[in-house]
Amino acid sequence: MKFRIALAAAMLVAAATPTLAQTFYVVQDTKTKKCTVVEQKPTVSTTVVVGDGKVFKSRTEAEGAVKTITVCK
Questions:
Q1: Number of domain units in the chain
Q2: Helix, strand, coil shares, percent, the chain, to 5
Q3: Of 58, 57, 54, 22, whose CA–CA distance to 72 is shortest?
């Protein structure tokens, strides 16, 4: 019985861990100069992180920052 409870708890923690570590970035396409919010840090040279490279914990927070970042206006 204890094994089943421990196993169930471990599965819940494993399922919740990716959502706890979710991060958002405000990036700008260097060709179109358009800013967007993404969940992963860009790895291509045509997209750069703007806003001093700040990492946001929620999409809402990142979308709000788009309005205040100078290069996104």
A1: 1
A2: 40, 20, 40
A3: 54
Q: How many CB atoms lie within 10 A of CB 45?
A: 7
Find the domain containing 45 and state its range: 21-72
Q: What is the pTM of this model?
A: 0.68
Query: For residue range 8-36, what is the model confidence (pLDDT) as tens digits?
Result: 666 665 655 555 568 999 999 999 999 99
Does 6 map to a domain? no
Closest CA to 63 of 38, 27, 29, 37: 37
- Contact by Cβ (8 Å): 34, 73: no
